[in-house]
Amino acid sequence: MQEDTGEATLMSASANVGDWRGHDVCLSGGNKLGKLEDVYYDGETNEPLVLCVRTGMLSRTQVLVAVRDAVAVPDRLTVAWSAEDVEGAPTTEPGEELSAEDEQRVFRHYGMDYKSPATPGSRRLVRR
Fold first, then answer.
1. How much is the pTM?
2. Which of 24, 79, 80, 107 suits a disulfide with 114, CB 3.0-4.6 Å?
């Protein structure tokens, strides 16, 4: 986890986002989206790409949020997305693997370029 300096830091591709599981995830306007439950990484580069955020206390469903430009402060992550950006984003259930179609939907939803994995049969997004 990040050192508690009180300063916001942009999450780097090498940051261990997984250490933030259980912490709040906030939207760009400051409103809480939910709690970070899991992270999908690029299956080839091991970079964190997508956060799995549980949006309700009783809900098991997790909304998928691109990690691009996320900012870390000692008690939460703030993503670069508004509520409108996240609305309609693909969702998943705990431990569920995404289909190839769902992977592409996540990339499209957040305006990211989707490239098929170089290794046949492998996945672009994997949980670690």
1. 0.84
2. 107
Task: Report residue 14's pLDDT band, with 50, 70 and 90 as the boundaries.
Answer: very low
Task: Give the CA count within 13 Å in the CB-facing half-sphere of 61.
Answer: 7
Torsion of CA 59, 84, 22, 41, to 10 degrees: 110
Neighbours of 17 (CB within 10 A): 23
Read off the pLDDT of residues 78-111 as tens digits, 9 standing for 90 and up: 999 999 999 999 999 988 888 889 999 999 999 9
> What distance lies between CA 63 and its chain's CA centroid?
9
How many of the other CB atoms lie within 10 Å of CB of 118?
A: 9
Kindly list the distances between the CA atom of residue 79 and the CA atoms of 6, 34, 82, 97, 127, in Å, as whole numbers in the listed order: 17, 11, 8, 23, 19
pLDDT confidence of residue 15: 58
